[in-house]
Structure formats: C-alpha cells, structure tokens
What does this fold into?
Amino acid sequence: MPYIKIPKGWDIPENQVTPESDYMNRRTFIKELGIAGVGALSLSQWSPDAFARPKDVEGHLAAFRAKPLAAEHNSQFTVERPMTAEVVAATYNNFYEFSSGKHELWKLMEDFQTHPWQLEIGGLVNNPMTLDVDDLLKHMPLEERIYRFRCVETWAMVVPWIGFPLKALLEKVQPTSDAKYVKMLTFWEPDVAQQQQNPRLPWPYVEGLTLAEAMNELTLLTVGIYGHILPPQHGAPIRLVVPWKYGFKSIKSIVRIALTDKQPRTFWNTLSPREYGFESNVNPNVPHPRWAQATESMIGTRKRYPTQIYNGYGEAVAHLYE
Ligand code: MTE
It folds into this structure.
C-alpha cells in the first residue's frame, strides 16, 4: 500500500507553541482521592505551570520519526481546524498509570517496553486469538485519519492517527450472538507504572463500548500518529480512538479485549459515576458536574471553539442513540 505523505502542518516553529495554563485537571482529583476519597472532591484549576518544553524532546521524537508506518491517508476525514503541532501533542498527555501530571510523561515513559506486545481477544467470540502487535500491523490495512479529539477536561487537539477500524478485528474473532459489549484492558505492571501501586485506584484501566459502538466505522484501533509508530505516552503499541466520546474512553496500551454480555465496570466510572458516565459522548449541553462543556481550547494555541454534539461526528453516530 502506498505511503502518502501529507503536509506536515504539525511541525510548527517553537515560538508558536504557547503555554497551556487554565484547564481543569484531574491531578487534584487523584490527589484528593488519595487523601479524602471521592466524596471530598472540589472544583480545582490546572496550576499555571509554564509549558516548559525540555530541549531534548526533538531527539525523543526523532527516534519515532525514524520508524514510519506505511498507511494510506483517508481523505474522508477532514477537520476544519489547524492540526496540533506534534511536539505539543507528545508533551501534553494523560496516562495516570505513570503520573497525574501531563508535561513530563514523554520523559517518564522512555523506558516503558512496548515490543514485543501481545494482544488477547476473547470472551464471547467463536474464534479467540492472541496476536503479536507487530504481526497485526503487517496484516491489517493501515490508514491515516485526521480526527478531532476532545478531553473531558475541555482541552482538544487535532491529530493524524494511523490504525484500522476495531470492526475489522472483531469480524475476525466473530462475536457470538450473546455479545453486547466490548471490554478493553490496559496492562497491569505496578513495578513499571508506579501509580498502579496506589490501591485506592481500580487498576488496571478498563474501558468499554457497546458492540454497536465498537463496530462503528469511526472506532479506530490505533498504532501510529504523525506518520510513525506511537510513542509510549500516546499509548504504544496499540490504543483505541473513539472521536465522538470524551478522551478517557480512548484507552491506551491495550493487552486484552473481551466481548461480554454485561456492561463492563470502567476505571473513571468506578471512581466517580456521576462525573464519568459509561457512555460519555461529547455533548456541549451537558456540563460536567464541576465545569461547563460548551467550549474547548486547543492545546498549543489555546484557540477556543464551541464544542459540537458528538464532537462533530453526529452524522456517523447519532443513529446509535435514537
Ligand atoms: N488510557 C490509560 N490506560 N490510562 C490513562 O490514564 N487517559 C485517557 C485516555 N486513555 C488514559 C488512557 C485520557 S483522560 C485521555 S484525554 C487520553 O487518553 C489522552 O490521550 P493522549 O495523551 O494521547 O492525548
């Protein structure tokens, strides 16, 4: 399959990357959870750290750019906003297994081993499998899609993912007629991911979709970003991207997918069901109990946009909720 090189709108000069400062953040959520439990949570602001960008981040990214992925660009998915700079997306992440901070994950995770990596798919399926992710990459037709991505914390980005529809994998394992949900789990390695030693958090990270959501054309299993393999902080070697739902549904570094007949208990929903619903579709009209969801701010530029219902993907997904 041809590798189509798309213009690198994300390679913006350093001086155009402005500080992130005023987002709601769940660092405090986790911190307060450690101290006082869910009942004591209060509205808290993202502390105004400067967007300190260590000089060696370019060297870090160069290692991944040296591993390009052949993928056909799918021009069906266009986004009217400017692409987020690669360096911004790579240095502003959520990966609570490693830290509740955002800016240092790229550095903290440099030793996280993501190859070889096995992905198990089982539960209510006729054809369970355990696959090596490197093999999977060779056998699935990879495509590049530019999606809007909206975090529940009100920040947003536009990035080019590389992957394949989850549907393609589900068709191979053949869900049985009893299967209604798709449950996904991140690795559990408390020696490597220090935050997993916190017994108050319901590790491993679990997310889930209804089978119909999982089979939707937009639901992408992702193995690359910006033309190359995923860096660890984005969820290497394989993560989910569900663009019409808040970002916490897009589970990273998946080791197991299980088809079930019951709605799975998920990480954030277990911690605070009132704040993080199982469905969690992007909806500007339903505020989070502690902040509004009507607008969003792009990481890097801080340009603010009105949030769209289903993050602008209603045409493809609204029918799932009628
Ligand atoms: N997956 C795991 N395993 N652990 C996490 O902490 N954070 C989620 C999601 N997937 C998270 C996760 C949240 S809250 C968001 S917004 C996105 O990952 C962030 O993805 P990014 O860092 O690639 O931008």
